Amino acid sequence: MTSLLEYTLLMFLISILAGFVGSLIGIGGGIIVVPVLTLLFNVPLGFAIGASIVSVIATSSGAASAYVKDRITNLRIGMFLEIATSTGAVVGAVTTIFLIKSSLSWIVYIVFGIVLLSSSYDLYRKSKKGIDFTQSAVNARPNRLGESLNLKGEYYDSALQQHIKYEATRVPGGLAVMFCAGLVSGLLGIGSGALKVIGMDTLMRLPFKVSTTTSNFMIGVTAAASTGIFYIGGFVNPLIAAPVMVGVVMGSFAGTKTLVRSKPSSLRLVFIVVLLILGIEMLQRGAVLV
Amino acid sequence: MNKEGNSAESKIDFNAIIGNILRYGVTLSSVLVVASMAFIFAGHASRDLPNSVSQLIQTNYGRPTVDFDKFVSGILSLNPMYILQLGFLILLATPIMRVGASIVLFAFEKDKAYVLVTTFVLIVLLFSIFVVGPIEAR
Fold first, then answer.
1. Full residue range of the structural domain in which residue A71 is found
2. Within an 8 Å CB–CB cutoff, is residue A246 touching chain B?
């Protein structure tokens, strides 16, 4: 039996670690925090998701405030795509609460397990290939919808030492991916930044840097849409959420400060294994509950 | 990237205002949460705390109140449980404030399309809190 003080201190430390390592390798803390809360502390899934999603708002807003000032984040593209992510998040949160109340939480566990395993694989794939952060996308076929909504921009790339101009393409497809990203975020209480980046980078052909910073900028509003529902619905218990929120924020803040200096490949390997184990555990938990 | 950032006519720094809202919101909320947690464990409130995590969950002790009068009087009496709630509410309000400020800033630039886009997002956020949330609380 864990006392409340023990829980608070232990979860605070774990959250710092999750936020720190997460920001070093580009994965949010939420994906670690929810399994830890449910598997280690036996916190019911709804409360775990509620605690995690609050920390997602905090990390996204904290990081976005820095990026926005760098002028790489495209505020217009971000706000336009938030139409889809916030709507998706509402649907996701309502679905999760429905499933939990109908004793179907095993579905959420299984989906969570699948997302963990695919994140682990994704990280493994990237570590083999290595991503080219300096790539820039120039579009041959700009989109009419994109044009009328001014979904374009330019930024100064310090690595390439040049101004990169870009324009969004395949906007409807991008919106669809963003809706799914919001849905996953609301369903599982995670930021689902990776999915947002795929939508912007691969589908809409935005430069990678613009995609990652704009994704981070959008995560906060996306998370706010589902947090409102979890909070009023009674799934955000402040005493459970407090150590998670403060820990993840502190950890990821420290992580962004160290990002420039080190390239942690062994750390990444540890994370690949951690995600893999948590994924299997979540699938098992889901299977037991079926 | 943003035209308004470069144009000489525009005196408002869009990015700076948005960035500041986000930073101050998160900082204020974190400070309130840390301070109130310290008071909850060290102060008088610790007597009422549940013994274990499982007990906390069974009773949902400390569940945020949706009673506005109760909330305000709790804040005014500096009850740390309510200050803790305030911390989380400020955090939740931060992205909403950011969206609200964007509407005003787009209106300043007479960008009608984006006033509409951003207003839609604000409506979704408010809808989730004031319509969907209360339904789920039942």
1. 4-129+140-289
2. yes
Domain count, chain B: 1
Contact B1 A155 (CB under 8 A): yes
pLDDT in tens, A163-213: 888 888 888 999 999 999 999 999 999 999 888 988 898 889 898 888 988
CA-based nearest residue to B88, from B21, B28, B44, B133: B28
A107-111 long-range CB contacts below 8 Å, 24 or more apart? A107/A286, A108/A45, A108/A49, A108/A187, A108/A188, A108/A286, A109/A38, A109/A45, A109/A282, A109/A283, A109/A285, A109/A286, A109/A289, A110/A282, A110/A283, A110/A286, A110/A287, A111/A187, A111/A188
Residue B118 in any domain: the answer is: yes
- How does pLDDT run along chain B (138 residues), one tens digit per residue? 444 444 434 556 777 888 888 889 999 999 999 999 999 998 876 778 888 888 898 888 888 888 889 999 999 999 999 999 999 999 999 999 999 999 999 999 899 999 999 999 999 999 999 999 999 988
Residue among A1, A3, A4 with most chain B CBs within 10 A, to mutate = A4
Residue A40 lies in a domain: yes
Q: What is the ipTM of this complex?
A: 0.89
> Who among A233, A234, A245 is closest to B33 (CB)?
A245
- B45 lies in a domain? yes
Domain-embedded: residue A134:
no
A2/B contact by beta carbon, under 8 A: yes
Q: For residue B57, is it within any domain?
A: yes
Taking CB atoms and an 8 Å cutoff, what residues of chain A touch B88? 54, 231, 236, 238, 241, 245
Can you give the residue range of the structural domain that contains B75? 12-137
Number of domains present in the structure of chain A: 1
**Cross-chain residue pair B56–A237, CB shorter than 8 Å:** yes
User: Does residue A135 sit within a domain?
Assistant: no
Domain assignment present for residue B77? The answer is yes
Are B57 and A237 in contact (CB < 8 Å)? Answer: yes
